[in-house]
Design brief:
The chain has 159 residues and is α/β, with parallel strands linked by helices. It is built from 6 helices and 5 strands. Helix 5 links the parallel strand 4 and strand 5.
Length: 159
Amino acid sequence: MSEFLDCAGPGKVAEPPRRLALIAHDNKKVDLVAWATFNRDTLAGFSLTATRHTARLLERKIGLPVEELLSGPEGGDTQIAARVATREVDAVFFFVDPLSAQPHEPDIRALLRVCNVHNVALATNLATADLIIMAFARCEELRSSVVGSKPLVRHPRFT
């Protein structure tokens, strides 16, 4: 799917909520929880999926339902990559720890590559996560406030 800037206006067929994948390395889980807490109201409008420990942490700390996949080292990153490839995820928020080696580094690189191949929004740090979630929130505002407007259309190259 990943219709990142396709903000259809009211009067259109109701779309299912956008699907976000959330992942954080151990040293970045605190950052993800702080970011998710700050953006809780916005995240509540999305279908959330996360790797095991991240999902449990988010459900406990911010109180939103999060679909739980395998942990990253057990194949959770690969599960998310498969969903990206089949257009079942609209954006990936992956708070990576660039200073620590990860035992499943090939899986991590594969996820990043699949996001790039399929043109799916990917945040690997706080600044990019803020930009992407603000863009999604703005699209939702446009959908709910502009009556009878023409939808914003993606560039043909990305359809």
